[in-house]
Design brief:
Its main location: membrane. It is built from 13 helices and two strands. With 350 residues, it is mainly alpha-helical. The protein has a domain at 56-294.
Length: 350
């Protein structure tokens, strides 16, 4: 007979070990379809590793791909800590991107010291505003935020497509549905010369450090953790639930909005309907792999980005579809969730 006994407290070594074992299991399971497809498993994974970080170009491409994942992963991690299940980072990313283009494409004139902060602020406010609606509906009316945030993704994407055919459309775009370009003065500076890696990566690192300090060293962080553990007990202890949840919602949506700004003001320079390759949804995987810990979001995002970037190289060389990356990421999420069971409980066989 198998029994699960709750642990009083899990050690850091156990938590880290369980995460690493879960990721190793995910790659081992992904080897099965690779072998079934006739690909050499060891060489395929080596090619994936080389494609993700074997050269300076590959490494910078991985970090570039990780940049929006850091911000959307952090957005999910912060919200989930308060049991506010924000599935709408994809829509908040597009809302932030639209706000960044509206401000940075000529609405305001000035130098980089003025325009770059304005673009980032506009994007953060747009993402925060979008998340506040589901937050209020959850706290006041008990509406499931998973449903509202998920459905808002499709609404915002349709609004973005409408704006690209209307007010934000570039008159010089040759008929393509894209926005006016962001001014050079409003663009995030590159980090490595002649590479695509930009200042958004440093913004993501800074956001993770600030979020860690906020969650562990501030009154608001204590309130967020208390509400996440037990909202009823937190309210009984005098913690204001609505202001705390509004702060969490604004912070989560703002971070996702910054991901949109980093893509248009750091990478592409303009907005298109295919700006995001599912960064908002992949951010949820990043948050879960990181155990909802802000500082762990960075390596988790780099890992997920490395899988996607490396899978392209592997695909071209061994002739296997790069959709194997989606499979690995999905397996990683499932394995991490299962590993959490062994972190929280001891398994006893009687």
């Amino acid at each position: 007979m198998i029994r699960f006994e709750p642990r009083a407290r899990a050690s850091l070594a156990l938590i880290v070990g369980a995460r690493l074992a879960a990721l190793a299991t995910a790659f081992a399971l992904a080897a099965i379809p690779l072998a079934a497809a006739g690909a050499p498993v060891g060489r395929s994974f080596w090619l994936m590793l080389q494609g993700a970080g074997g050269t300076l170009f590959a490494l910078t491409e991985t970090l570039t791909r990780a940049t929006p994942l850091i911000l959307t992963g952090l957005a999910a991690a912060v919200a989930f800590r308060a049991r506010l299940f924000n599935i709408g980072a994809e829509g908040q990313l597009y809302a932030g991107a639209m706000a960044a283009v509206a401000v940075g494409s000529g609405a305001v004139s000035g130098g980089p010291l003025l325009l770059v902060p304005l673009v980032l602020l506009a994007a953060a406010l747009a993402g925060a505003a979008l998340m506040l609606v589901p937050t209020v509906l959850k706290v006041r009316l008990g509406v499931d935020e998973v449903v509202t945030t998920l459905l808002l993704n499709f609404v915002v994407l349709l609004v973005a497509q409408m704006m690209l055919e209307g007010p934000l459309k570039d008159p010089m775009g040759g008929g393509w549905p894209q926005s006016e370009p962001i001014l050079d003065q409003a663009m995030l500076p590159p980090i490595v010369e002649r590479m695509r890696l930009h200042g958004g990566f440093l913004l993501g690192l800074l956001a993770c450090v600030v979020a860690h300090v906020l969650m562990t060293r501030s009154v608001l962080g204590l309130r967020i953790r208390a509400v996440g553990e037990n909202a009823t007990a937190a309210a009984y202890a005098g913690i204001p639930i609505l202001p705390t949840m509004l702060a969490v919602g604004a912070l989560s949506g703002g971070l996702a909005g910054l991901a949109g700004a980093s893509e248009v003001a750091g990478l592409k320079g303009y907005l298109t309907a295919d700006l995001s390759r599912g960064f908002g949804y992949a951010g949820i995987v990043v948050a879960m792999v990181a155990g909802l810990q802000p500082l762990a979001v960075v390596p988790a995002a780099i890992l997920v980005a490395g899988v996607f970037v490396g899978a392209d190289t592997m695909s071209r060389t061994v002739g296997v579809s790069n959709y194997i990356a989606d499979l690995i990421v999905a397996l990683a999420l499932v394995c991490v969730l299962v590993s959490g069971l062994f972190v929280r409980f001891r398994v006893r066989i009687a």
